[in-house]
Every structure is written in C-alpha cells, then in structure tokens.
UniProtKB/TrEMBL annotation:
UniProt keyword annotation of Metal-binding present: yes
One GO term of the biological process aspect: tricarboxylic acid cycle
Protein name per UniProt: succinate dehydrogenase
Enzyme Commission code(s) on record: 1.3.5.1
Family the UniProt entry places it in: Belongs to the succinate dehydrogenase/fumarate reductase iron-sulfur protein family.
InterPro entries in UniProt: 2Fe-2S_ferredoxin-like_sf, 4Fe4S_Fe-S-bd, 4Fe4S_Fe_S_CS, Beta-grasp_dom_sf, Helical_ferredxn, SDH/FRD_Iron-Sulfur, Succ_DH/fum_Rdtase_Fe-S, Succ_DH/fum_Rdtase_N
Domain 4Fe-4S ferredoxin-type, residue spans: 146-174
Cofactor: [3Fe-4S] cluster; [4Fe-4S] cluster; [2Fe-2S] cluster
UniProt-listed Gene3D superfamilies: 3.10.20.30, Alpha-helical ferredoxin
Keyword Metal-binding among record annotations: yes
Gene name tied to this protein: sdhB_1
Keywords recorded for this protein, A-Z: 2Fe-2S, 3Fe-4S, 4Fe-4S, Iron, Iron-sulfur, Metal-binding, Oxidoreductase, Tricarboxylic acid cycle
Lineage: Bacteria, Bacillati, Bacillota, Bacilli, Bacillales
Length: 250
C-alpha cells in the first residue's frame, strides 16, 4: 500500500510583535485542489507539528478567498502573494510561509497594514463631494481613459508591491507604488482632477515619489497585473511639470 501523500510546510511564527521569530514545521494530509488557506485550516483543526507535538494554532487572516480583499497576503516560498490563490500543486515543497516583514507583525502570519491606509489618506485617494445632497450625475470619462483607469482601480491594497519594494523599510517613509498609482487614477477622474494639485504636492513631500528607486519589483508581484511602473513614470512627469509651473508662477 502506497504511503499517504503529505504536504510539508515550514512556517515562520512570532508570538507577539516584541518577540523573536521562530520556525515550526508541519506535515498535513494532501487533498486535491488545496490552496495555502486550506493547509492553514488543516493545521488549525489539528495543531500538531511535524513531530506530532501539540502547538498553538497558527494565526493568519483571510476573508474573501477570491483574491479581492488582500487580507491573506503573506510571503510564500520567498514571494509576496495571496494565500487563497496559491495552489499546493503549483508550489515547491517544503512550502515556506512567512509574514510580510515590511509591516509590523501582530502574530505569526498576521501583519498590520495600517501604513498603506495612512498613505492613501496622505495622497487623498478619493473623489470628494460637497455635502450629502444629490449633485446629479458626474462627468463621464472618455472610453480610452476609462479602459486603462479601470486597470488601476483593480488595486485592493493587499501590500504585495510594498513588501517587494526595497525602498519601503524602517529607514524610510516611502508611501509605496500602490499610492502613486492611485494618485494617477484619481487625478485622471474628471471630478478627482479638481484636487490634482493637492495630490501632486503630497507626492512631492516626505516619503513621496522621489524615494522610488525604480527597482520594478512592484510590477512583478502585483496579483492584478497593474502597470505600477507606468503609473510611477507618469507621476514623475506630472510632478516635474507641476514643480516647474509652480516655480514660474512665483
């Protein structure tokens, strides 16, 4: 009788944000069609390590299971990605899971992505309205602009691009590629363009676009294939033009 197929995982764990990380190995029964979330659920159901010793269940996050919410982002075999779409059959074993170290670790694979939402606040990544009364239909975007703007709107703040970017670390305040792309998106919107200068000012401030080193890691790991480097190039031009115009208008 053939030996039952097992899935071998090596998970980097951390009990609290102020403790040192350590690794624990697990071996769980294989099932066809498993993804990393299913493997973590199996460990949660029966939390014993590869030697059979009982351990605390691994902490992790998930929500939509459709690569929409971004909650299950972690580093899988050295690459930041969504655990819900990481299929066991397509991963080299042992499968190594780590938290995204660009962010503060809460516990095990759970991280605090607050810096991303603070970056969106900084660049005012929204279309403001005046009050709550009905303003009627807004202006329509030309179809040629709508098509590429839709690609930028696919960003779901998962953090893959931030984790992969070497310029986002504890020594810098760089807002990250996703925020720059969102400035491009909202500055292109007919209503959002009313506040374009404020967003460009934010990009030119501390942690702004000038801290991008153009490593292009971001575009390689984006799960939605968003043209982040194209957005960065476009915003580099926009901020340069804005800076020159502001100097000439002094």
């Amino acid at each position: 009788m053939s030996e039952k197929r097992m899935v071998h995982l090596i998970i980097e764990r951390q009990d609290r944000n102020d403790t040192s990380p350590y690794t624990v190995e697990f071996k769980i029964p294989y099932r066809p069609g498993m993804n990393v979330i299913a493997a973590l659920m199996e460990i949660q159901r029966n939390p014993v390590d590869a030697s059979g010793k009982p351990v605390a269940p691994v902490a992790w996050e998930c929500n939509c299971l459709e690569e929409v919410c971004g909650a299950c982002m972690m580093v899988i075999n050295g690459k930041p990605r969504q655990a819900c779409t990481a299929l066991i059959d397509q991963l080299e074993q042992p499968i190594r899971l780590k938290p995204a170290r660009t962010f503060p670790v809460v516990r095990d694979l759970v991280v605090d992505r607050s810096r991303m939402f603070q970056a969106l606040k900084k660049v005012k990544a929204w279309v403001p309205i005046d009050g709550t009364h009905n303003l009627g239909p807004g202006p329509r975007m030309p179809e040629k602009d709508r098509q590429w703007a839709y690609e930028l709107s696919k960003c779901f703040t998962c953090g893959c691009c931030v984790e992969a970017c070497p310029n986002v670390n504890e020594r810098t305040n760089f807002i990250g590629p996703f925020a720059i792309s969102q400035v491009r998106l909202f500055n292109t919107h007919p209503t959002g363009a009313m506040h374009a200068d404020e967003r460009l000012e934010a990009l030119m401030g501390e942690g702004g676009i000038h801290e991008c080193g153009n490593s292009q890691n971001c575009v390689q790991v984006c799960p939605k294939g968003i043209p982040l480097t194209t957005s960065i190039a476009a915003m580099n031009r926009a901020t340069t033009v804005y800076a020159i115009k502001s100097w000439l208008n002094r």
